Each structure stands twice: as structure tokens, then as C-alpha cells.
Amino acid sequence: MSLKQLKVLKNRNVDDSEFGVQVYEQTKPLGTMYKPNGNIFPMSKKDIINDIISGNDIYKTISDNSFTNVRVDGKINEGYGRYLRSVSDNTKKDNILSLPIR
User: Fold this and answer.
1) Rounded CA gap, 58 and 101, in Å?
2) Helix or strand or coil: residue 45?
3) pLDDT number for residue 74
4) Which own/partner contact pairs does 95-98 have at CB distance under 8 Å and 24+ positions apart?
């Protein structure tokens, strides 16, 4: 399992969002410190959702120099279906929609 950070958002369209993702690697054995490992690569919202649901990787955003977990909410057959959401932190802004657009 690896840690992946959502870095940029291609557009604000909820249905076909594409993100720039960067992998981080542990710098200490207990996994408390991470550093970037490699370049930013594109990944679709659908693939990120499937990755989180399957338990393959952990996704986070960064706000105020600290990581915030990204989770999947919603159900396939309800309203907007499944979507990405950041776990509550000490900021009122939406961490995912606040990502820079490339």
C-alpha cells in the first residue's frame, strides 16, 4: 500500500475529473514521515475511487502543510453516485475543489 497525494485538478466537472497524483514513500519504518517519489501522473476520478475502495492505496490532499485523508462517499445508484471527499480538518474550504487547476 502506498500513499498518493492529489496535487492538481484538470477541471471542475464532477463526472469526468482527472487529477494529477504523486506517490510518496515512507522515510521512517513506522510510516510517520513521507517524501515524494517520482513525477506527477494523471489519474481519473473513477480509477482513484476504485483504488480507495479496493484498499490498494491511501489518498490525501495537503492543506496548511499537513495531509488530509481522501475518502469515497455516496452509493452507485444514488444521486451523483460515488464521489471523493476529504476528511474534515481545521479548514472550512473543500480540500479537493481547492486544488489548483492545470
Assistant:
1) 22
2) helix
3) 81
4) 95/61, 95/63, 95/68, 95/70, 96/6, 96/9, 96/61, 96/70, 97/9, 97/12, 98/63
The yes-or-no verdict on residue 30 having pLDDT over 60 is no
Amino acid at 38: G
d(CA 52, CA 96): 15
Q: Are 56 and 23 in contact (CB under 8 A)?
A: no
CB proximity list for 44: less than 8 A, separation 6 or greater: 16, 17, 18, 19
What DSSP character marks residue 101? B
Q: Provide the whole-model pTM.
A: 0.77
Is pLDDT of 78 > 80? no
pLDDT of residue 92: 66
Q: What is the arithmetic mean of pLDDT over 6-30?
A: 75
Q: CA separation (Å) from 76 to 13, 49, 79?
A: 18, 11, 8
